[in-house]
Design brief:
- The complex is a heterotrimer.
- In chain A, 74% of the residues lie in helices and 2% in strands.
- By secondary structure, chain A is an all-alpha fold.
- In chain A, helix 1 (4-24) packs antiparallel against helix 2 and helix 2 packs antiparallel against helix 3 (67-97).
- Chain A is elongated, with a radius of gyration of 18 Å.
- Chain B has helices spanning 4-25, 29-50, 53-78, 90-114, 129-137, 141-162, and one strand spanning 119-120.
- In chain B, helix 2 runs antiparallel to helix 3.
- Classes of the chains: A mainly alpha, B mainly alpha, C mainly alpha.
- Chains in contact: A-B, A-C, B-C.
- Chains A and B meet through strand 1, helix 1, helix 2 and helix 3 of A and helix 1, helix 2, helix 3, helix 4 and strand 1 of B.
- Strand 1 of chain A pairs antiparallel with strand 1 of chain B.
Chain lengths: 110, 175, 650
């Protein structure tokens, strides 16, 4: 039996790594991947809670049980859309700036 | 008390942690991408432990199988090389990292101290597609439809943004 | 039976005239401006005259309420008018002499480009002066007081294009202000202790107070402070310095304001407050001493002056000193009597001087005149009458009033009397000096050329020799000459004093007590003052007609003294060094550089600079760098999370 809090700690750790990656890394694509990491951590949290509420009787607390998994779906859909569009933007920026270093993309206009 | 549930949890968790740390440690983006894929696979294992089998399957198919592949394609397309060491932002490092550490430590502390120790039974969730389908098409019908529109927009956006500009060759700008 | 006299018309009519001329005069013809100016001031005089005719039919003192003004707690002051014998006398003098001077100005200022402005200001002055006289409370009187100061400033600086005129106007106003400061503090004391500024109320409360023989006390303080105000307005020591400079204004202005009416406002105010002064012997003494000293001092300066108007200015200061001397020994009605006769002969003297200046094309220096009596006989005649009057030769007006003052002064102290007599001698001397130098001997002036010189503003007179003034200027001269001749006869058998008795009888103990001296003494003193007047005439005749080389020899003999007197005892220079220069230095260095520039301006500038520096630093936050933005977000959200956890855990 794994306590709920273990899941939450793991989820938090993944999220923290995602934030750290966002702050440290210089390559734009790596930064994007850190965002995906953050989203994954959050997904884990959702599912863990869904299991928890299902076991603990969520209806009495006004929570639709198992809705955590549905949320995960939506998170994945959004992540997919965002990845597609974001990578398209990166390609467009690469065409004009010739660089993937985020520190060098700091002007709105050339 | 050491149950198989716990051991499996710890095993998958270790892979997640290692993958996440490796993503930070690597300099070449392709290595980071592969670590991320490892993380996602391990997470799928975690979901299975919780009983959310459909979610685990979708995680592997969509996340690891489509999104990460997209990332790898882009890395190859842009021929991204190793990261250079440029002078970045001092704020990010000096404010951001401690902030993040502080936040996560606080949250972890709260979670560990104050949440109940109710355990999650392995495979607790009824995670089969039927249940999820029912939820999706009853309570969450509207968000479902909206997300489909969202995907459509994302497709169009990606096509427009990534396509070559219609006029003469893109100007080469020297930084 | 109380008739409604509609007193308010008297000040308001000239105000209307001033408004019409002031706003519409620029575009109107000379005739229209003249009509408006004369009609309104004439109407005021006519109304004042009709009031005088109906005077006995009204309950005296007659008060007329015009409008509410201030009602504040227990204190109230209204627009209300007060008429008694004293204000009636002043009223007739001001409106009568004022009207005559208006007529004279038509001729004198005819060629001036700002003709309409002159009449507007003149009417405005009449309004304020009449308000001053008719007010029933100190506050309304103070409005008139300040208003005549304003009118005086405007009229002295009438030719403001000239630097000297503008400065003179400024000087007059500022020195007056210094006096007003004392006046105001006196008023504050009155409010504080008597709760009102209304004459009736204040004097009723002051009546039962015993005289402060100790030399110090509330009433003494009030009296001295009121006297400070009077010194400013009526040009006594030490605030007389503005009056000689005020001669920069046109001559009718000098006649009206600085001889007949405005400068007498101080005397009027002191007389009106006689209830207070009579109970403060020390204050009375201060008044008398100042008046006496000023009379002598100014007279000595008049001996050596060469500008015809300046002599008359110093003479005015000296005669005002006589009036204050009278008030100071308790003979208020004698002071008012002299005020009235002085208005006649001094007004006439100034107007005639204006006529002389007009005749010689703008020259004011007497050394360039002489022998004018054949050219301008009428002016000579009227000016001669006025000179006889001021010298105190019977039966002219000045004799009666001056003699009354000297007689009353003798009853208090022979020192006052002696100084008064010496001053009378000197007055007679310099006035006849003026007359002889101007009208006798040979004409020393240049032929009058096309352009008038001096401050006269005359243009286009191509005459070769001095010419008589037009009738419009001569008629007022003649009327005033008649008044100077017979105006003193109201003093026969003390008729005038008895007329004013109802006003001054409350506590006029000093007058009745003085009757102890015999009639014989009175005639002796009378004879002495007449003799002294003739002595002055004789001396002037000798020095300036029969032996004209003598004055230069005497001047060389008394070299140092003569230079001092010629330069007015260097008082102006002294004031400049003592007060004006430090004030200007202080203003420039401390107030301008220090306060205005450094403190106020720099505060604003430094605030702007500071904002700029701060934003210079803060702008680094907006670098466009993605990671720094992310860093800030992470830090901020950590702070929020920490705060929420802390709130939740408590």
């Amino acid at each position: 039996m794994v306590p709920l809090s273990y899941y939450l700690v793991l989820s938090g750790f993944l999220f923290a790594c995602g934030v750290a990656g966002f702050l440290i890394k210089r390559n734009i694509i790596t930064i994007f991947m850190s965002i995906e990491l953050m989203l994954n951590g959050v997904n884990l949290s959702f599912v863990a809670f869904a299991a928890h509420w299902h076991a603990a009787g969520g209806e009495t607390h006004g929570i639709v049980p198992l809705s955590g998994q549905v949320f995960v779906f939506f998170v994945m859909v959004v992540a997919a859309a965002e990845a597609a569009v974001g990578l398209a933007i990166i390609i467009a920026v690469y065409r004009t700036r010739e660089t993937l270093n985020v520190d060098q993309v700091n002007l709105l206009k050339l | 008390m050491l149950s198989i549930h716990l051991i499996l949890f710890l095993a998958f968790g270790a892979v997640c942690v290692a993958g996440a740390v490796n993503l930070l440690a690597q300099t070449h983006p392709i290595n980071s991408a592969l670590s991320l894929i490892a993380v996602m696979a391990a997470l799928a294992g975690e979901y299975l432990l919780l009983g959310a089998e459909f979610v685990a399957a979708v995680q592997v198919i969509v996340y690891a199988g489509a999104i990460m592949v997209l990332f790898v394609f882009t890395i190859m397309l842009l021929n991204a090389g190793e990261e250079e060491r440029t002078k970045g932002s001092r704020v990010a490092v000096s404010f951001g990292i401690p902030g993040m550490l502080l936040g996560s430590i606080l949250v972890g502390w709260v979670v560990l101290r104050h949440s109940g120790t109710e355990a999650v039974v392995a495979g607790a969730l009824p995670g089969d597609p039927k249940v999820i389908g029912q939820l999706l098409f009853h309570e969450f019908l509207l968000p479902f439809e909206i997300t489909s529109v969202l995907i459509l927009i994302a497709i169009m956006g990606a096509v427009v943004l990534a396509s070559k500009p219609p006029t003469a060759p893109a100007r080469k700008v020297v930084d | 039976m109380t008739a409604n006299l509609n007193l308010w018309l008297i000040p308001v009519l000239p105000l209307a005239g001033a408004a019409i001329n002031g706003f519409l005069g620029k575009k109107s013809s000379r005739t229209a401006v003249t009509t408006v100016g004369l009609v309104f001031s004439g109407a005021a005089f006519a109304w004042a005259f009709s009031v005088a005719l109906r005077f006995s039919s009204a309950d005296l003192p007659y008060q007329e309420f015009v409008a509410h003004w201030i009602r504040s707690g227990n204190f109230s002051a209204d627009f209300a008018l007060y008429l008694d014998q004293l204000s009636l006398v002043m009223l007739l003098v001001v409106t009568g002499v004022g009207f005559l001077i208006h007529i004279y100005s038509v001729g004198y200022m005819w060629d001036d480009p700002s003709y309409y402005r002159f009449f507007a200001y003149l009417n405005l002055f009449m309004f304020f002066m009449l308000t001053l006289i008719l007010a029933n409370n100190y506050l309304l009187m103070f409005i008139g007081w300040e208003g005549v100061g304003l009118a005086s400033y405007l009229l002295i600086g009438f030719w403001f294009m000239k630097d000297s005129a503008a400065s003179a106007g400024k000087k007059a106003f500022i020195v007056n202000r210094i006096g007003d400061f004392g006046f105001l503090i006196g008023l504050f004391l009155i409010i504080q202790h008597f709760g009102s500024l209304n004459f009736t109320q204040v004097f009723a409360q002051v009546q039962p107070i015993a005289p402060e023989t100790g030399g110090a006390g509330l009433l003494t303080a009030i009296g001295i402070l009121l006297m400070v105000g009077a010194c400013g307005k009526s040009a006594q020591i030490p605030l007389y310095v503005w009056l000689p400079d005020a001669m920069e204004g046109p001559t009718p202005v000098s006649a009206l304001i600085h001889a007949a009416t405005m400068v007498t406002a101080g005397v009027y105010m002191v007389s009106r407050s006689h209830v207070i002064f009579e109970r403060a012997p020390m204050a009375l003494m201060v008044v008398a001493v100042i008046g006496t000293l000023t009379a002598l001092f100014a007279a000595t300066i008049g001996i050596a002056q060469t500008d015809i108007k300046k002599i008359l200015a110093y003479s005015t200061i000296s005669q005002l000193g006589y009036m204050f001397m009278a008030c100071g020994v308790g003979a208020f009605s004698a002071g008012i009597f002299h005020l009235m006769t002085h208005a006649f002969f001094k007004g006439l003297l100034f107007l005639a001087a204006g006529s002389v200046i007009h005749a010689v094309g703008g020259e004011q220096d007497m050394r360039k005149m002489g022998g004018l009596r054949s050219y301008i006989p009428w002016t000579f005649l009227t000016m001669g009458i006025a000179t006889l009057a001021i010298a105190g030769i019977p039966p002219f007006a000045g004799f009666w009033s001056k003699d009354e003052i000297l007689w009353q002064a003798y009853q208090t102290s022979w020192v006052y009397w002696l100084i008064g007599v010496i001053t009378a001698f000197i007055t007679s001397f310099y006035m006849f000096r003026l007359l002889f130098m101007t009208f006798f001997g040979d004409y020393h002036g240049a032929q009058v050329d096309e352009h008038g010189r001096g401050s006269h503003g005359h243009d286009g007179h191509g005459h070769g020799e001095p010419h008589e003034s037009p009738m419009v200027m001569l008629v007022p001269l003649m009327i005033l000459a008649v008044l100077s001749l017979v105006g003193g006869l109201v003093g026969w058998h003390n008729h005038f004093e008895h007329f004013l008795d109802p006003v001054f009888s409350s506590g006029a103990a000093s007058e009745t007590a003085g009757v102890i001296s015999s009639r014989l003494m009175e005639y002796v003193l009378m004879g002495i003052s007449v003799a002294v007047a003739f002595l002055g005439l004789l001396l002037a005749y000798v020095l300036y007609v029969s032996k004209p080389y003598l004055p230069q020899r005497i001047a060389d003999l008394l070299n140092g003294f003569y230079t001092a007197v010629l330069n007015k005892y260097y008082v102006d220079e002294f004031y400049a060094k003592l007060f004006v220069k430090p004030l200007i230095q202080g203003s420039t260095n401390i107030l301008w550089q220090g306060v205005d520039r450094k403190t106020i301006d720099d505060t604003v500038n430094n605030a702007a600079d500071g904002a700029r520096h701060v934003s210079d630093e803060v702008r680094h936050m907006q670098s466009g760098n993605l990671r720094s933005y992310a860093g800030w977000i992470a830090a901020g959200s950590a702070a929020v999370i920490a705060y929420m956890i802390w709130m939740g855990v408590r």
